[in-house]
Design a protein that fits this description.
The chain contains three helices and ten strands, in the order H-E-E-H-E-E-E-E-H-E-E-E-E. The chain is of the alpha+beta class. The longest helix is centred in the first third of the chain and has 19 residues, at about 1-20.
Length: about 160
């Protein structure tokens, strides 16, 4: 009886953990949506001001995923609203891509992936033609992943 209960709990564990894991994208992350104004994003209570950014943009953190001293979790543009959200450690896109993924995995998940002029891979987000995922890769693995509006004016 105890063994059966333990087996059931173990079997339910990973599925339950997967079910509650937040998905990065396609329209936002952690209750913050791309394109929402700074006022609306602040009113949601899920972000905190961090530092300035490019002209016309400001850096913020997601309260549930604070970043280090010299980093931000997202940028808000005066013109575009929430413009770019950076993926924290441990989260993945619906297609299973996250920090630590390889280019081969990105290519398999997103066959239409392209390379920007700067060389980094990016792809239009499945289910959200207004947005893209971009990936910075070092030592063969993704070390930074962003969800951004194609029209964002905060980062290169």
């Amino acid at each position: 009886m105890v063994a059966a209960g333990l087996a059931t709990a173990l079997a339910a564990g990973p599925a339950h953990a997967q079910a509650v894991r937040p998905v990065f994208g396609p329209t936002g992350f952690a209750g913050v949506k791309l394109g929402v104004s700074a006022k609306a994003a602040k009113a949601g209570g899920k972000i905190t001001y961090k530092q300035g950014g490019a002209p016309g943009c400001s850096g913020w953190d997601l309260k549930s995923y604070p970043t280090g001293r010299d980093a931000v979790g997202l940028y808000i543009s005066k013109k575009r609203g929430v413009a770019v959200i950076f993926a924290p450690k441990g989260v993945k896109t619906k297609e299973g891509i996250g920090l630590g993924s390889t280019y081969k995995q990105i290519k398999k998940a997103y066959p239409k992936v392209k390379r920007a002029a700067g060389g980094f891979p990016y792809v239009t987000v499945p289910g959200n033609p207004k947005a893209y995922y971009s990936f910075l890769i070092g030592k063969g693995k993704v070390y930074e992943m962003a969800l951004g509006l194609h029209t964002q004016d905060c980062v290169n």
